[in-house]
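Can you give me the bound-state structure? Components:
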Amino acid sequence: MKILNATLIVCALATIGTATAEARDLTVVSWGGNYQDAQRKIYFEPFAKQAGKPVLDESWDGGYGVLQAKVKAGVPNWDAVQVEAEELALGCADGIYEKVDWDKLGGKSKFLPAAVSDCGVGAIVWSTGISYDGDKLKQAPASWADFWDTKKIPGKRGLRKGAKYALEFALMADGVAADEVYSVLATPEGVDRAFKKLDELKSNIVWWEAGAQPLQLLSSGEVVMTTAYNGRISGLNRSEGKHFGFVFPGSIYAIDSWVVLKDSPNKDTAMDFIAYASKADNQSKLPEYIAYGLPNIEAGKLVPAKFQTELPTSPDNLKRAISLDVDFWTDNSEALTQRFNAWLAQ
Amino acid sequence: MNQPRLGKQLISLALVAPLLLFLIVFFALPLVTMIKSAVSDPVAARTLPATARSVSSWDRTSPPTVEMQAAFVADLRQISDDQLFGDLVRRLNSAKSGFRTLMPKTRKAALDTAGSIDLVALDKRWGDISYWQAVSVAASSRITDRNLLAAVDLQRDASGAIASLPADASANKAIMLRTFVMALTVTGACILIGFPFAMIAASVDGWKRQLLLGAVLLPLWTSLLVRTAAWFILLQDRGLINSVLMQSGVTSSPIPLIFNRAGVIIAMTHVLLPFMVLPIFSVLIGIPKNLMPAAASLGAHPVRAFLNVLLPLGLRGVVSGSLLVFMSALGYYITPALIGGAKDQMISSVIAYYATGAANWGMAGALGLVLLAATMILYAIYLRLSSERETSP
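Here's the bound-state model for the whole set.
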């Protein structure tokens, strides 16, 4: 009996021990790679210094279920997270994010209208498009038709593993005009057409998942072209002297947002952090490291002219690019992903 | 007389209590939760009680009645918990794409206006009967076989009969089969490499044995991710293996070793080899060393001595090693994800998508359950075969 009691006491103590462990430091989660390195330099470290408290940073590869599970489990172990537009829409509808205190950020009017939401603050405008190694490829690809043309440019291609982006790019390669992509994709025939086009390239595709992978695939020569996030490409060019190119026509841009997970123990600090990272003079430092567009309108104006041309938000780059249709993907993501996985397995 | 015995029983119970607690918390509870999440489907019945009553008399083929629409709007007005509403939307959208944008729009309209709402005028999708069928199916039952059926590429059609999903819509069966084939291949490769290795390790001693065992144990102490990343570097087109082959003139162009099945099998075999070598080694080391010379002295050829003496005695180690390797290989995720191509992904990647990507825990649980059931059947067959062998003369 004594032993049983002792066991119970030990168990109870262990539980209390973990529950009353020291309050966790602010944990900020972003997309890793050279993008997060830049964020660490211009946001995380200066904010930690200013607040006098350490800031932990982790990286993730997306997935709404990850966030939902963390919130449903009770007290989440992440505070501020950078999410894609789809995760913002889903989570805001489900109530897994704290409401944004826009007064802390200086009001909604300071930001691009698309970057404003009840639950999130736009962090970057980023593009996904074709990138290639300018040192190895004499003839640069200009369109998705070129990406699909393995006779003109032989070699493997990298694509982000998933229905999102792959289907849109396939339709553009098949001759659908950029601004009609989503109306075609909304029909069953359009989906069939996209998968048929993907079939043509299937044996030449290397699939990637994390944003840092395509850079590695291009550097090692494993692929001759790949889809990639534009900011990482220019970031690598600057830090390692590469000559990677990025094709803006036919690219798809989207907005990533900062959110604070519901019931986060550091929610006030997290909101302060987001306000810090959204300040015009802090945000305008980002394009020097990584060429993403800035949701803070004032910050966009502060960016030096030499970096402006690389941003997805510059008028020239916006011309033939399209915006990701978030509504389409929140509705169709599960069904199309299921079909995409089945197609992959065949 | 009774008192001390009770005390002793309590003490022994207390001694195994940590183990029992561990088993309950880390094995039984998750298993029960997984089974429950695979078949329970209470969210629509809970959030749409009035709709559930009014659809019970609907034949699911005629246009939705006015009462059904009114009941649905009334139910939407009752939902105050956003997360619960999110669960409902996710459940419905998983059955029919489109609810994701339709539901918040409808709920907003229901909360903004007090009277009755013309749903079809609000959004023309409500005029499509398939949306109402999805609502009706979801609201009328608290348990479902939908996930379990979908896990093996089946579904219920409009009349409720079980039918297979269109061939291009789902490939769970094919991926499940591939998982078993890959696990078997890795097990086979581990036996082919592990048995001779264990034989050599058991036949030498001193520093040689330490060196051989160290070669097996050292990788075991390294993180799985690190070992997989190392293989990534070795196997790629301009990696160490292909550079050596090309420089030595064996091939002129790189052999494709990465993003295909060969690469995954090589990496998984390396990662799982210790689980094969160690059980075989521990069995072989217990076999008296004079058996093989004895067989030779009776005139047996070394091959025959091996087949008739050493192999049967070492078989116990092979069997337990195979079980360890096979079961571990079934759940592999990170190695196929990094080294494999699209056709080398195992069922765990599909489960991971449903759990972390789609937040569809029901589907993730159902796939896990099917994998568990298939594994149990294989294990039962193994038990049956091994007990038959032991009882036969």
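A couple of observations. The CA atoms of residues 294 and 300 of chain A lie 6 Å apart. Chain A has 17 helices and nine strands.
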